[in-house]
Amino acid sequence: MPQGPSALEQRGPLRTETRRESLRRTVARLRSEVVRALMGARTSQGYWEGELASSALATATALVALEYGGRHGLVTVGDLDDRLCRAIAWLLDDQNDDGSWGDAPGCRGNIAATYLVAGALSPYRSSNSSVRAACERAFAYLQASGGLDALAARYGNDRTFVVPILTFLASRGLVDWAQVPRLPFELGILPHWLLRRFNVGVVSYALPALIAIGYAVARNRGSSWLRRSAWPVLVPMALRRLERIQPESGGYLEAVPLTAFVTISLLHAKRGHSPVVRRALGFLLQLQRADGSWPVDANLSCWLTSLSLQAVQLDPSVAEQVGETAVRSAVDWLLEQQCRVRHPYTDAAPGGWGWSHLSGSVPDVDDTSSALLALWPHANRSEVLRAGDAGVRWLLGVQNRDGGWPTFCKGWGWLPFDRSAPDLTAHAVRAIAAWLPRLPARLRRLAGRALARGLAYFRANQQSDGAFIPLWFGNEQHPREENPVYGTARVVVCYNELGGAGRLGAQDREAAKRAVSWLVRCRNRDGSWGGGPGLIGTTEETALALAALAPRSELSDDWFEPTVRWIEERMAAGTWDRPAPIGLYFAKLWYFERLYPIIFLATALAALGRRLRVEQEEPV
Protein backbone atom coordinates (compact mmCIF):
# COMPACT_ATOMS: atom_id res chain seq x y z
CA MET A 1 0.00 0.00 0.00
CA PRO A 2 1.51 3.42 -0.93
CA GLN A 3 2.79 5.37 2.03
CA GLY A 4 2.37 9.12 2.56
CA PRO A 5 5.36 11.44 2.86
CA SER A 6 7.68 10.75 5.77
CA ALA A 7 8.21 13.17 8.61
CA LEU A 8 11.50 14.23 7.05
CA GLU A 9 9.87 14.87 3.68
CA GLN A 10 6.97 16.76 5.25
CA ARG A 11 9.36 19.18 6.90
CA GLY A 12 11.04 19.86 3.56
CA PRO A 13 14.49 21.24 2.71
CA LEU A 14 14.66 24.05 5.30
CA ARG A 15 17.72 25.74 6.78
CA THR A 16 20.65 23.40 7.52
CA GLU A 17 20.21 23.69 11.26
CA THR A 18 16.47 23.05 11.01
CA ARG A 19 17.04 19.95 8.89
CA ARG A 20 19.56 18.71 11.41
CA GLU A 21 17.08 19.22 14.24
CA SER A 22 14.46 17.40 12.18
CA LEU A 23 16.85 14.50 11.68
CA ARG A 24 17.60 14.46 15.39
CA ARG A 25 13.96 14.28 16.35
CA THR A 26 13.23 11.54 13.81
CA VAL A 27 16.16 9.42 14.97
CA ALA A 28 15.11 9.89 18.61
CA ARG A 29 11.57 8.77 17.87
CA LEU A 30 12.61 5.74 15.79
CA ARG A 31 15.23 4.73 18.29
CA SER A 32 12.74 4.90 21.13
CA GLU A 33 10.39 2.52 19.31
CA VAL A 34 13.14 0.05 18.44
CA VAL A 35 14.58 0.03 21.96
CA ARG A 36 11.11 -0.63 23.36
CA ALA A 37 10.85 -3.64 21.04
CA LEU A 38 14.29 -4.80 22.09
CA MET A 39 13.54 -4.60 25.80
CA GLY A 40 10.19 -6.29 25.26
CA ALA A 41 11.96 -9.28 23.69
CA ARG A 42 13.81 -10.24 26.90
CA THR A 43 12.97 -13.38 28.82
CA SER A 44 11.63 -13.19 32.36
CA GLN A 45 15.20 -13.87 33.56
CA GLY A 46 16.42 -10.68 31.91
CA TYR A 47 18.38 -12.05 28.93
CA TRP A 48 17.59 -12.41 25.22
CA GLU A 49 16.89 -15.87 23.77
CA GLY A 50 15.39 -15.05 20.37
CA GLU A 51 13.96 -17.53 17.91
CA LEU A 52 15.81 -19.17 15.04
CA ALA A 53 14.03 -19.94 11.80
CA SER A 54 12.47 -23.33 11.30
CA SER A 55 14.56 -25.41 8.94
CA ALA A 56 13.51 -27.90 6.28
CA LEU A 57 16.87 -29.61 6.56
CA ALA A 58 16.68 -29.91 10.35
CA THR A 59 13.07 -31.07 10.16
CA ALA A 60 13.90 -33.76 7.60
CA THR A 61 16.79 -35.20 9.59
CA ALA A 62 14.93 -35.10 12.91
CA LEU A 63 11.88 -36.73 11.31
CA VAL A 64 13.96 -39.68 10.11
CA ALA A 65 15.81 -40.04 13.42
CA LEU A 66 12.52 -40.22 15.33
CA GLU A 67 11.03 -42.57 12.76
CA TYR A 68 13.96 -44.97 13.17
CA GLY A 69 13.90 -44.56 16.95
CA GLY A 70 10.22 -45.49 17.04
CA ARG A 71 10.86 -48.46 14.78
CA HIS A 72 13.48 -49.72 17.26
CA GLY A 73 11.22 -49.12 20.26
CA LEU A 74 13.42 -46.32 21.59
CA VAL A 75 10.81 -43.53 21.44
CA THR A 76 8.12 -44.11 24.01
CA VAL A 77 6.00 -40.95 23.62
CA GLY A 78 2.42 -41.82 22.74
CA ASP A 79 2.06 -39.11 20.13
CA LEU A 80 4.98 -40.14 17.92
CA ASP A 81 2.77 -40.77 14.87
CA ASP A 82 1.18 -37.34 15.32
CA ARG A 83 4.62 -35.73 15.60
CA LEU A 84 5.78 -37.39 12.39
CA CYS A 85 2.59 -36.39 10.56
CA ARG A 86 2.99 -32.76 11.66
CA ALA A 87 6.61 -32.76 10.47
CA ILE A 88 5.59 -34.17 7.08
CA ALA A 89 2.78 -31.63 6.73
CA TRP A 90 5.17 -28.78 7.54
CA LEU A 91 7.66 -29.99 4.94
CA LEU A 92 4.98 -30.28 2.27
CA ASP A 93 3.81 -26.75 3.00
CA ASP A 94 7.40 -25.43 2.84
CA GLN A 95 8.23 -26.79 -0.62
CA ASN A 96 9.06 -24.16 -3.24
CA ASP A 97 7.19 -23.87 -6.53
CA ASP A 98 10.11 -25.40 -8.45
CA GLY A 99 10.02 -28.56 -6.31
CA SER A 100 12.99 -27.62 -4.14
CA TRP A 101 13.41 -26.82 -0.47
CA GLY A 102 15.49 -24.03 1.00
CA ASP A 103 17.13 -24.01 4.39
CA ALA A 104 14.57 -21.65 5.96
CA PRO A 105 11.06 -20.53 4.97
CA GLY A 106 11.24 -18.14 2.04
CA CYS A 107 14.76 -19.17 1.04
CA ARG A 108 15.50 -20.22 -2.51
CA GLY A 109 15.96 -23.95 -2.94
CA ASN A 110 19.29 -25.71 -2.80
CA ILE A 111 20.40 -29.19 -3.65
CA ALA A 112 21.42 -30.25 -0.11
CA ALA A 113 18.15 -29.37 1.59
CA THR A 114 16.14 -30.85 -1.29
CA TYR A 115 18.02 -34.16 -1.20
CA LEU A 116 17.49 -34.49 2.54
CA VAL A 117 13.79 -33.64 2.48
CA ALA A 118 13.15 -35.85 -0.54
CA GLY A 119 15.00 -38.65 1.23
CA ALA A 120 12.98 -38.16 4.40
CA LEU A 121 9.63 -38.20 2.56
CA SER A 122 10.44 -40.93 0.03
CA PRO A 123 9.19 -43.97 2.05
CA TYR A 124 5.80 -42.27 2.54
CA ARG A 125 5.10 -41.94 -1.19
CA SER A 126 3.06 -45.13 -1.48
CA SER A 127 0.61 -44.18 1.27
CA ASN A 128 0.17 -40.44 0.66
CA SER A 129 -0.61 -38.86 -2.71
CA SER A 130 0.53 -35.39 -1.56
CA VAL A 131 3.91 -36.80 -0.54
CA ARG A 132 4.16 -38.69 -3.84
CA ALA A 133 3.53 -35.52 -5.84
CA ALA A 134 6.02 -33.53 -3.73
CA CYS A 135 8.71 -36.18 -4.19
CA GLU A 136 8.18 -36.34 -7.95
CA ARG A 137 8.69 -32.57 -8.20
CA ALA A 138 11.71 -32.76 -5.88
CA PHE A 139 13.44 -35.52 -7.83
CA ALA A 140 12.81 -33.60 -11.06
CA TYR A 141 14.47 -30.56 -9.49
CA LEU A 142 17.45 -32.66 -8.33
CA GLN A 143 17.93 -34.21 -11.75
CA ALA A 144 17.75 -30.82 -13.45
CA SER A 145 20.23 -29.39 -10.91
CA GLY A 146 22.91 -32.00 -11.56
CA GLY A 147 22.20 -34.63 -8.92
CA LEU A 148 24.93 -36.02 -6.72
CA ASP A 149 27.68 -34.46 -8.82
CA ALA A 150 26.24 -31.01 -8.12
CA LEU A 151 25.98 -31.86 -4.43
CA ALA A 152 29.67 -32.77 -4.32
CA ALA A 153 30.58 -29.65 -6.26
CA ARG A 154 28.71 -27.42 -3.78
CA TYR A 155 31.00 -28.49 -0.94
CA GLY A 156 34.22 -29.24 -2.78
CA ASN A 157 36.85 -30.91 -0.59
CA ASP A 158 34.87 -30.32 2.60
CA ARG A 159 33.45 -33.72 3.51
CA THR A 160 31.92 -32.56 6.79
CA PHE A 161 28.48 -32.25 5.20
CA VAL A 162 28.60 -34.30 2.00
CA VAL A 163 29.31 -37.53 3.86
CA PRO A 164 26.45 -37.06 6.37
CA ILE A 165 24.03 -36.33 3.51
CA LEU A 166 25.13 -39.41 1.57
CA THR A 167 24.96 -41.52 4.73
CA PHE A 168 21.41 -40.26 5.27
CA LEU A 169 20.46 -41.11 1.68
CA ALA A 170 22.05 -44.55 1.97
CA SER A 171 19.99 -45.22 5.11
CA ARG A 172 16.87 -44.41 3.02
CA GLY A 173 17.98 -46.69 0.19
CA LEU A 174 18.44 -43.83 -2.29
CA VAL A 175 22.17 -44.36 -2.82
CA ASP A 176 24.40 -47.38 -2.39
CA TRP A 177 26.63 -47.47 0.68
CA ALA A 178 29.58 -47.90 -1.70
CA GLN A 179 28.99 -44.31 -2.86
CA VAL A 180 29.55 -42.92 0.62
CA PRO A 181 33.17 -41.84 1.26
CA ARG A 182 34.87 -43.38 4.26
CA LEU A 183 35.64 -41.43 7.43
CA PRO A 184 38.41 -42.67 9.78
CA PHE A 185 36.25 -43.08 12.89
CA GLU A 186 39.25 -44.59 14.67
CA LEU A 187 40.65 -41.05 15.05
CA GLY A 188 37.93 -40.58 17.62
CA ILE A 189 40.02 -42.37 20.24
CA LEU A 190 42.96 -39.96 19.97
CA PRO A 191 43.42 -37.71 23.02
CA HIS A 192 43.02 -33.94 22.70
CA TRP A 193 46.67 -33.28 23.49
CA LEU A 194 47.74 -35.35 20.49
CA LEU A 195 45.32 -33.53 18.19
CA ARG A 196 46.73 -30.21 19.41
CA ARG A 197 50.27 -31.48 18.98
CA PHE A 198 49.66 -31.89 15.25
CA ASN A 199 47.60 -28.69 15.07
CA VAL A 200 44.41 -30.53 14.13
CA GLY A 201 42.29 -29.46 17.08
CA VAL A 202 39.55 -28.91 14.53
CA VAL A 203 38.93 -32.66 14.70
CA SER A 204 37.55 -32.16 18.21
CA TYR A 205 34.58 -30.27 16.83
CA ALA A 206 33.75 -32.98 14.30
CA LEU A 207 34.10 -35.94 16.66
CA PRO A 208 30.40 -36.88 16.91
CA ALA A 209 30.00 -37.06 13.13
CA LEU A 210 33.44 -38.63 12.65
CA ILE A 211 32.74 -41.45 15.10
CA ALA A 212 29.07 -42.21 14.42
CA ILE A 213 28.96 -41.66 10.68
CA GLY A 214 32.44 -43.09 10.11
CA TYR A 215 31.52 -46.30 11.91
CA ALA A 216 28.15 -46.61 10.13
CA VAL A 217 29.81 -46.25 6.74
CA ALA A 218 32.57 -48.72 7.61
CA ARG A 219 30.08 -51.29 8.86
CA ASN A 220 27.64 -50.99 5.95
CA ARG A 221 30.15 -50.46 3.18
CA GLY A 222 32.55 -53.14 4.30
CA SER A 223 36.17 -52.90 5.41
CA SER A 224 39.33 -54.90 5.11
CA TRP A 225 39.90 -57.88 7.38
CA LEU A 226 42.89 -56.10 8.94
CA ARG A 227 40.85 -53.04 9.84
CA ARG A 228 37.92 -55.08 11.18
CA SER A 229 40.27 -57.14 13.33
CA ALA A 230 40.95 -54.08 15.47
CA TRP A 231 37.27 -53.18 15.91
CA PRO A 232 36.65 -55.23 19.09
CA VAL A 233 39.04 -52.85 20.82
CA LEU A 234 38.62 -49.59 18.88
CA VAL A 235 34.83 -49.47 18.47
CA PRO A 236 34.00 -49.60 22.20
CA MET A 237 36.66 -46.95 22.85
CA ALA A 238 35.25 -44.66 20.16
CA LEU A 239 31.65 -45.12 21.36
CA ARG A 240 32.65 -44.39 24.95
CA ARG A 241 34.28 -41.19 23.71
CA LEU A 242 31.04 -40.32 21.90
CA GLU A 243 29.11 -40.87 25.12
CA ARG A 244 31.54 -38.80 27.23
CA ILE A 245 31.35 -35.77 24.97
CA GLN A 246 27.57 -35.82 24.64
CA PRO A 247 26.23 -32.77 26.51
CA GLU A 248 23.65 -33.04 29.25
CA SER A 249 20.92 -31.85 26.87
CA GLY A 250 21.65 -34.77 24.53
CA GLY A 251 22.23 -32.45 21.57
CA TYR A 252 25.73 -32.19 20.11
CA LEU A 253 26.45 -28.45 19.67
CA GLU A 254 22.71 -28.03 20.42
CA ALA A 255 22.36 -28.71 16.69
CA VAL A 256 19.39 -30.68 15.36
CA PRO A 257 20.99 -31.91 12.09
CA LEU A 258 24.23 -33.07 13.74
CA THR A 259 22.38 -34.84 16.56
CA ALA A 260 19.99 -36.47 14.08
CA PHE A 261 22.85 -37.62 11.83
CA VAL A 262 24.58 -39.22 14.83
CA THR A 263 21.36 -40.98 15.85
CA ILE A 264 20.58 -42.28 12.37
CA SER A 265 24.15 -43.53 11.92
CA LEU A 266 24.29 -45.39 15.22
CA LEU A 267 20.96 -47.07 14.52
CA HIS A 268 22.22 -48.19 11.10
CA ALA A 269 25.43 -49.45 12.68
CA LYS A 270 23.28 -51.59 15.00
CA ARG A 271 24.26 -49.54 18.05
CA GLY A 272 20.76 -48.51 19.09
CA HIS A 273 21.43 -49.77 22.61
CA SER A 274 23.94 -46.96 23.16
CA PRO A 275 22.85 -44.39 25.79
CA VAL A 276 23.83 -41.75 23.24
CA VAL A 277 20.84 -42.65 21.08
CA ARG A 278 18.21 -42.32 23.81
CA ARG A 279 19.56 -38.97 24.99
CA ALA A 280 19.78 -37.69 21.41
CA LEU A 281 16.20 -38.73 20.71
CA GLY A 282 15.10 -36.95 23.88
CA PHE A 283 16.81 -33.78 22.67
CA LEU A 284 15.05 -33.98 19.30
CA LEU A 285 11.65 -34.55 20.89
CA GLN A 286 12.12 -31.53 23.14
CA LEU A 287 13.01 -29.17 20.29
CA GLN A 288 10.15 -29.98 17.94
CA ARG A 289 7.86 -26.98 17.53
CA ALA A 290 4.07 -26.95 17.66
CA ASP A 291 3.84 -26.69 13.87
CA GLY A 292 5.91 -29.86 13.49
CA SER A 293 9.20 -28.22 12.45
CA TRP A 294 12.66 -27.99 13.98
CA PRO A 295 15.23 -25.14 13.96
CA VAL A 296 18.88 -25.83 13.10
CA ASP A 297 19.95 -25.04 16.67
CA ALA A 298 18.27 -24.50 20.03
CA ASN A 299 19.02 -20.78 20.44
CA LEU A 300 21.70 -18.06 20.31
CA SER A 301 21.05 -16.66 23.79
CA CYS A 302 24.61 -15.57 24.69
CA TRP A 303 25.21 -13.99 21.30
CA LEU A 304 21.91 -12.11 21.32
CA THR A 305 22.34 -10.95 24.91
CA SER A 306 25.85 -9.61 24.36
CA LEU A 307 24.82 -7.84 21.14
CA SER A 308 21.77 -6.35 22.87
CA LEU A 309 23.86 -5.07 25.75
CA GLN A 310 26.26 -3.42 23.32
CA ALA A 311 23.34 -1.71 21.57
CA VAL A 312 21.92 -0.43 24.85
CA GLN A 313 25.28 0.79 26.14
CA LEU A 314 26.44 2.49 22.94
CA ASP A 315 24.55 5.70 23.73
CA PRO A 316 24.42 6.72 27.42
CA SER A 317 20.93 8.17 27.03
CA VAL A 318 19.60 4.78 25.92
CA ALA A 319 21.26 2.96 28.82
CA GLU A 320 19.86 5.50 31.25
CA GLN A 321 16.31 5.05 30.02
CA VAL A 322 16.57 1.25 29.85
CA GLY A 323 17.52 1.35 33.50
CA GLU A 324 20.47 0.21 35.57
CA THR A 325 18.57 -2.76 36.98
CA ALA A 326 17.80 -4.23 33.55
CA VAL A 327 21.39 -3.77 32.37
CA ARG A 328 22.81 -5.23 35.58
CA SER A 329 20.55 -8.29 35.29
CA ALA A 330 21.72 -9.03 31.74
CA VAL A 331 25.37 -8.43 32.67
CA ASP A 332 25.13 -10.82 35.61
CA TRP A 333 23.50 -13.47 33.45
CA LEU A 334 26.20 -13.12 30.80
CA LEU A 335 28.93 -13.42 33.42
CA GLU A 336 27.47 -16.74 34.54
CA GLN A 337 27.79 -18.18 31.02
CA GLN A 338 31.58 -17.91 30.83
CA CYS A 339 33.30 -21.31 30.59
CA ARG A 340 35.46 -21.53 33.70
CA VAL A 341 36.85 -25.04 33.18
CA ARG A 342 38.40 -26.81 30.23
CA HIS A 343 35.53 -27.76 27.97
CA PRO A 344 34.73 -31.51 28.13
CA TYR A 345 33.73 -31.72 24.46
CA THR A 346 36.33 -29.64 22.62
CA ASP A 347 39.00 -29.39 25.33
CA ALA A 348 38.92 -25.61 24.82
CA ALA A 349 40.71 -23.64 27.53
CA PRO A 350 38.62 -21.85 30.15
CA GLY A 351 37.69 -18.19 29.63
CA GLY A 352 35.54 -18.26 26.51
CA TRP A 353 31.82 -17.96 25.80
CA GLY A 354 29.63 -20.02 23.51
CA TRP A 355 26.56 -18.91 21.55
CA SER A 356 24.05 -20.36 24.00
CA HIS A 357 23.65 -20.95 27.72
CA LEU A 358 22.69 -24.59 26.99
CA SER A 359 25.08 -27.46 27.65
CA GLY A 360 25.81 -28.27 24.01
CA SER A 361 27.25 -24.84 23.26
CA VAL A 362 31.05 -24.52 23.02
CA PRO A 363 33.38 -21.48 23.31
CA ASP A 364 34.06 -19.54 20.13
CA VAL A 365 35.72 -16.29 19.08
CA ASP A 366 32.66 -14.29 17.98
CA ASP A 367 30.72 -14.93 21.18
CA THR A 368 33.72 -14.45 23.45
CA SER A 369 34.57 -11.15 21.78
CA SER A 370 30.97 -9.95 21.91
CA ALA A 371 30.68 -10.85 25.60
CA LEU A 372 33.90 -8.98 26.40
CA LEU A 373 32.63 -5.87 24.60
CA ALA A 374 29.31 -6.06 26.46
CA LEU A 375 31.06 -6.45 29.82
CA TRP A 376 33.74 -3.78 29.30
CA PRO A 377 31.64 -0.84 30.61
CA HIS A 378 31.39 -2.72 33.92
CA ALA A 379 35.11 -3.39 34.34
CA ASN A 380 35.07 -1.52 37.65
CA ARG A 381 33.46 -4.63 39.16
CA SER A 382 36.08 -7.12 40.33
CA GLU A 383 34.23 -10.16 38.99
CA VAL A 384 33.90 -8.52 35.57
CA LEU A 385 37.58 -7.62 35.58
CA ARG A 386 38.53 -11.25 36.29
CA ALA A 387 36.20 -12.46 33.53
CA GLY A 388 37.69 -9.96 31.09
CA ASP A 389 41.24 -11.03 31.87
CA ALA A 390 40.34 -14.70 31.29
CA GLY A 391 38.42 -13.89 28.11
CA VAL A 392 41.31 -11.95 26.58
CA ARG A 393 43.71 -14.78 27.43
CA TRP A 394 41.35 -17.18 25.67
CA LEU A 395 41.28 -15.02 22.54
CA LEU A 396 45.05 -14.68 22.46
CA GLY A 397 45.36 -18.46 22.68
CA VAL A 398 43.39 -19.13 19.49
CA GLN A 399 44.86 -16.49 17.17
CA ASN A 400 46.00 -18.15 13.94
CA ARG A 401 49.47 -17.89 12.44
CA ASP A 402 48.17 -15.57 9.71
CA GLY A 403 47.23 -13.02 12.38
CA GLY A 404 43.50 -13.55 12.03
CA TRP A 405 41.07 -15.25 14.35
CA PRO A 406 39.15 -18.45 13.56
CA THR A 407 35.78 -19.53 14.92
CA PHE A 408 36.66 -22.28 17.37
CA CYS A 409 40.29 -23.27 17.34
CA LYS A 410 43.72 -22.52 15.96
CA GLY A 411 44.48 -24.74 12.98
CA TRP A 412 45.56 -25.11 9.38
CA GLY A 413 42.70 -23.01 8.00
CA TRP A 414 41.27 -25.72 5.76
CA LEU A 415 37.78 -25.88 7.29
CA PRO A 416 35.35 -23.22 8.56
CA PHE A 417 36.05 -24.37 12.13
CA ASP A 418 39.67 -23.16 12.09
CA ARG A 419 39.77 -20.66 9.21
CA SER A 420 40.53 -17.01 9.97
CA ALA A 421 37.89 -14.51 8.87
CA PRO A 422 37.72 -10.69 8.80
CA ASP A 423 34.45 -10.47 10.75
CA LEU A 424 35.77 -12.71 13.53
CA THR A 425 39.09 -10.90 13.57
CA ALA A 426 37.37 -7.49 13.77
CA HIS A 427 35.37 -8.63 16.77
CA ALA A 428 38.43 -10.06 18.53
CA VAL A 429 40.58 -6.98 17.83
CA ARG A 430 37.85 -4.67 19.18
CA ALA A 431 37.49 -6.73 22.36
CA ILE A 432 41.22 -6.96 23.06
CA ALA A 433 41.75 -3.26 22.31
CA ALA A 434 38.92 -2.28 24.67
CA TRP A 435 40.35 -4.32 27.54
CA LEU A 436 44.00 -3.45 26.85
CA PRO A 437 44.35 -0.64 29.44
CA ARG A 438 43.07 -2.90 32.24
CA LEU A 439 45.29 -5.91 31.51
CA PRO A 440 48.36 -6.88 33.56
CA ALA A 441 51.64 -5.64 32.06
CA ARG A 442 52.80 -8.94 30.52
CA LEU A 443 49.39 -9.75 29.11
CA ARG A 444 49.15 -6.18 27.78
CA ARG A 445 52.37 -6.68 25.81
CA LEU A 446 51.09 -9.95 24.32
CA ALA A 447 47.78 -8.30 23.47
CA GLY A 448 49.54 -5.37 21.77
CA ARG A 449 51.46 -7.74 19.51
CA ALA A 450 48.26 -9.67 18.75
CA LEU A 451 46.50 -6.44 17.72
CA ALA A 452 49.33 -5.54 15.36
CA ARG A 453 49.09 -8.98 13.74
CA GLY A 454 45.32 -8.61 13.47
CA LEU A 455 45.66 -5.32 11.61
CA ALA A 456 48.21 -6.89 9.30
CA TYR A 457 45.67 -9.67 8.61
CA PHE A 458 43.14 -7.03 7.51
CA ARG A 459 45.65 -5.48 5.12
CA ALA A 460 46.43 -8.88 3.60
CA ASN A 461 42.79 -9.94 3.24
CA GLN A 462 41.05 -6.79 2.05
CA GLN A 463 39.48 -7.29 -1.37
CA SER A 464 40.78 -5.23 -4.28
CA ASP A 465 37.61 -3.10 -4.20
CA GLY A 466 38.03 -2.37 -0.46
CA ALA A 467 35.49 -4.89 0.88
CA PHE A 468 35.91 -7.70 3.41
CA ILE A 469 34.22 -11.12 3.15
CA PRO A 470 32.77 -12.66 6.35
CA LEU A 471 32.61 -16.36 7.17
CA TRP A 472 29.34 -17.04 8.97
CA PHE A 473 27.06 -14.55 7.20
CA GLY A 474 25.97 -14.39 3.59
CA ASN A 475 23.25 -13.26 1.22
CA GLU A 476 21.59 -15.78 -1.06
CA GLN A 477 21.01 -13.09 -3.70
CA HIS A 478 24.75 -12.48 -3.98
CA PRO A 479 26.40 -14.26 -6.96
CA ARG A 480 28.77 -16.10 -4.61
CA GLU A 481 26.34 -16.23 -1.66
CA GLU A 482 28.67 -13.88 0.25
CA ASN A 483 27.80 -10.83 2.32
CA PRO A 484 30.56 -8.25 1.90
CA VAL A 485 28.35 -5.57 3.49
CA TYR A 486 28.28 -7.54 6.74
CA GLY A 487 32.02 -8.22 6.67
CA THR A 488 33.03 -4.71 5.66
CA ALA A 489 30.73 -3.08 8.21
CA ARG A 490 32.21 -5.17 11.02
CA VAL A 491 35.77 -4.25 10.02
CA VAL A 492 34.92 -0.55 9.62
CA VAL A 493 33.52 -0.49 13.18
CA CYS A 494 36.84 -1.97 14.31
CA TYR A 495 38.79 0.68 12.38
CA ASN A 496 36.60 3.41 13.87
CA GLU A 497 37.33 2.33 17.43
CA LEU A 498 41.05 1.77 16.94
CA GLY A 499 41.37 5.01 15.02
CA GLY A 500 39.70 6.88 17.86
CA ALA A 501 42.26 5.37 20.21
CA GLY A 502 45.16 6.35 17.94
CA ARG A 503 46.09 2.73 17.14
CA LEU A 504 46.01 2.88 13.33
CA GLY A 505 49.10 3.40 11.21
CA ALA A 506 49.14 5.07 7.80
CA GLN A 507 48.46 1.80 5.96
CA ASP A 508 45.59 0.96 8.26
CA ARG A 509 44.01 4.40 7.81
CA GLU A 510 44.24 3.97 4.06
CA ALA A 511 42.63 0.50 4.30
CA ALA A 512 39.86 2.00 6.43
CA LYS A 513 39.19 4.73 3.86
CA ARG A 514 38.93 2.15 1.09
CA ALA A 515 36.50 0.07 3.16
CA VAL A 516 34.36 3.11 3.98
CA SER A 517 34.37 4.19 0.34
CA TRP A 518 33.18 0.74 -0.75
CA LEU A 519 30.41 0.73 1.86
CA VAL A 520 29.26 4.20 0.81
CA ARG A 521 29.14 3.15 -2.86
CA CYS A 522 27.05 0.12 -1.91
CA ARG A 523 24.09 2.14 -0.68
CA ASN A 524 20.99 1.74 -2.83
CA ARG A 525 19.15 4.73 -4.28
CA ASP A 526 16.42 4.35 -1.66
CA GLY A 527 18.95 4.70 1.18
CA SER A 528 19.14 1.00 2.10
CA TRP A 529 21.83 -1.67 1.88
CA GLY A 530 21.60 -5.28 0.82
CA GLY A 531 24.36 -7.85 1.15
CA GLY A 532 26.33 -6.33 -1.72
CA PRO A 533 26.14 -3.77 -4.54
CA GLY A 534 22.70 -3.56 -6.12
CA LEU A 535 21.05 -6.12 -3.81
CA ILE A 536 17.65 -5.47 -2.25
CA GLY A 537 17.93 -3.72 1.09
CA THR A 538 17.14 -5.41 4.40
CA THR A 539 16.84 -4.02 7.91
CA GLU A 540 19.84 -6.05 9.08
CA GLU A 541 22.26 -5.02 6.36
CA THR A 542 21.10 -1.40 6.35
CA ALA A 543 21.55 -1.23 10.11
CA LEU A 544 25.01 -2.79 9.97
CA ALA A 545 26.21 -0.31 7.36
CA LEU A 546 24.62 2.63 9.19
CA ALA A 547 26.27 1.69 12.50
CA ALA A 548 29.65 1.50 10.76
CA LEU A 549 29.33 4.79 8.90
CA ALA A 550 27.62 6.91 11.55
CA PRO A 551 30.89 7.93 13.28
CA ARG A 552 32.68 8.84 10.02
CA SER A 553 33.46 12.56 9.93
CA GLU A 554 33.91 12.61 6.14
CA LEU A 555 30.14 12.09 5.79
CA SER A 556 27.77 14.98 6.46
CA ASP A 557 24.66 14.68 8.61
CA ASP A 558 22.51 15.23 5.52
CA TRP A 559 24.06 12.17 3.87
CA PHE A 560 22.21 9.94 6.35
CA GLU A 561 18.75 11.38 5.61
CA PRO A 562 17.79 8.89 2.83
CA THR A 563 18.68 5.96 5.08
CA VAL A 564 16.70 7.35 8.02
CA ARG A 565 13.76 7.94 5.66
CA TRP A 566 13.98 4.31 4.43
CA ILE A 567 13.96 3.04 8.02
CA GLU A 568 11.08 5.36 8.92
CA GLU A 569 8.99 4.12 6.01
CA ARG A 570 9.57 0.46 6.87
CA MET A 571 8.65 1.09 10.48
CA ALA A 572 5.48 2.91 9.42
CA ALA A 573 4.59 -0.06 7.20
CA GLY A 574 5.30 -2.56 10.00
CA THR A 575 7.86 -4.49 7.95
CA TRP A 576 11.06 -3.35 9.65
CA ASP A 577 11.37 -6.29 12.04
CA ARG A 578 10.88 -9.08 9.48
CA PRO A 579 14.13 -11.07 9.60
CA ALA A 580 16.15 -11.85 6.48
CA PRO A 581 18.13 -15.09 5.99
CA ILE A 582 21.61 -13.61 6.31
CA GLY A 583 22.97 -16.15 8.79
CA LEU A 584 25.08 -19.07 7.58
CA TYR A 585 25.20 -22.13 9.82
CA PHE A 586 27.66 -24.97 9.36
CA ALA A 587 28.06 -26.13 5.77
CA LYS A 588 26.28 -23.20 4.10
CA LEU A 589 22.95 -23.61 5.87
CA TRP A 590 20.90 -20.42 5.74
CA TYR A 591 18.98 -19.22 8.75
CA PHE A 592 17.34 -16.09 10.07
CA GLU A 593 16.99 -14.96 13.67
CA ARG A 594 13.90 -13.07 14.82
CA LEU A 595 15.89 -10.58 16.89
CA TYR A 596 18.59 -9.67 14.36
CA PRO A 597 16.68 -6.77 12.75
CA ILE A 598 15.72 -5.39 16.17
CA ILE A 599 19.21 -5.65 17.70
CA PHE A 600 21.06 -4.40 14.63
CA LEU A 601 18.71 -1.46 14.15
CA ALA A 602 18.89 -0.52 17.83
CA THR A 603 22.68 -0.46 17.49
CA ALA A 604 22.58 1.63 14.31
CA LEU A 605 20.17 4.23 15.65
CA ALA A 606 22.15 4.46 18.89
CA ALA A 607 25.30 5.10 16.84
CA LEU A 608 23.58 7.73 14.72
CA GLY A 609 21.97 9.26 17.78
CA ARG A 610 25.36 9.46 19.44
CA ARG A 611 26.66 11.30 16.40
CA LEU A 612 23.77 13.74 16.46
CA ARG A 613 23.77 13.93 20.27
CA VAL A 614 20.14 12.92 20.34
CA GLU A 615 18.34 13.34 23.65
CA GLN A 616 15.62 10.74 23.96
CA GLU A 617 12.25 12.44 23.82
CA GLU A 618 10.05 9.53 24.82
CA PRO A 619 10.39 7.12 27.73
CA VAL A 620 11.24 3.54 26.88
Walk me through what this model shows.
The chain has 26 helices and four strands. With 620 residues, it is mainly alpha-helical. It has two domains: 7-52 and 299-612, Glycosyltransferase; 54-295, Glycosyltransferase (Alpha/alpha barrel). The protein has a two-stranded antiparallel ribbon. A hairpin with a 3-residue loop joins β3 and β4 (589-591). The chain is globular. The protein starts with 6 loop residues before the first helix and ends in an 8-residue tail after the last helix.
Concise summary:
The chain is mostly helical and 620 residues long. The chain has helices at 7-11, 16-40, 56-71, 80-94, 111-121, 129-145, 147-155, 159-171, 192-197, 207-221, 225-229, 231-244, 256-268, 275-287, 301-314, 316-322, 324-336, 365-375, 382-397, 422-435, 441-461, 484-500, 506-521, 539-549, 561-573, 596-612; strands spanning 54-55, 294-295, 583-585, 589-591.
The level-1 CATH class of the largest domain: Mainly Alpha
Q: What's the β-strand tally?
A: 4
The main pleated sheet reads as:
2 strands, antiparallel
| Individual helix count | 26
Which structural category do the helix and sheet elements fall into?
mainly alpha
Mean pLDDT: 91
Low-confidence stretches: 614-620
Distance between the termini: 29 Å
Query: Strand content of the residues, in percent?
Result: under 5%
Rg, nearest Å? 25 Å
Instruction: Please tell me what the overall shape is.
Output: globular
Helix content: 55-70%
Give the name of the CATH architecture of the largest domain: Alpha/alpha barrel
Q: What is the CATH topology of the largest domain?
A: Glycosyltransferase
H/E topology pattern: HHEHHHHHHHHHHHHEHHHHHHHHHHHEEH
Widest β-sheet, arrangement of strands: 1-2
The total number of structural domains is 2
